[in-house]
Amino acid sequence: MPTTNHITTKWLGKMAFESTNPSGLNLTIDAGPDVGGEGKGYRPKALMLSSLAGCSGLDVASLIKKMKLEVDDFQIDTIANLTDEHPKFYDAVTVEYHFHGSNLDEKKLQRAVDLSVERYCGVMEMFRQFAKIEIKTIFHHK
């Protein structure tokens, strides 16, 4: 039996929607005031970038734990180019993995990033279908 996700997204009025999540934590999606929204929710395209970073970040965090690596701080910056013409979509995305610490094992951390990017992250694979992906790994030694 194939795995499926079923998300229900309900209109709340004006430009706002509430979307369910399998975690049980719902989220609000809303447009900005410039197009009739109130800016009280997440923007759909930006959420895609959060999904990309979150998917890969979960992989990397799991591998950091599994490899017993020392990392003080870890963040992912996702910078995307939006096309000019409608329907506007991301045609190029840069994903920057920033690792901070005084005892960073660069080789193993790079391996963790590579495993996520090349093998584990399904959202990364989805993005590859429509965007050029650039990966950067940056080490900040304390």
Describe the main β-sheet briefly: 3 strands, antiparallel
How much strand? 25-35%
Helix content: 25-40%
User: How many β strands by DSSP?
Assistant: 6
From the 3D structure, determine the CATH topology of the largest domain.
GMP Synthetase, Chain A, domain 3
* CATH level-four homologous superfamily name of the largest domain: K homology (KH) domain
Protein model, in words:
With 142 residues, the protein is an alpha+beta fold. It has three helices and six strands, in the order βββαββααβ. The strands form two sheets. A three-stranded antiparallel sheet has the order 1-2-3, with no helix packed on it. A three-stranded mixed sheet has the order 4-5-6, covered by helices on one side. Helix 1 packs across helix 2 (106-120) and helix 1 (44-66) crosses helix 3. The longest helix has 23 residues, at 44-66.
Descriptive terms for the model:
142 residues, alpha+beta, GMP Synthetase, Chain A, domain 3, 2 domains, 3-stranded antiparallel β-sheet, 3-stranded mixed β-sheet, 6 strands, 32% helix, 31% strand
Short description:
This is Putative redox protein. By secondary structure, the protein is of the alpha+beta class.
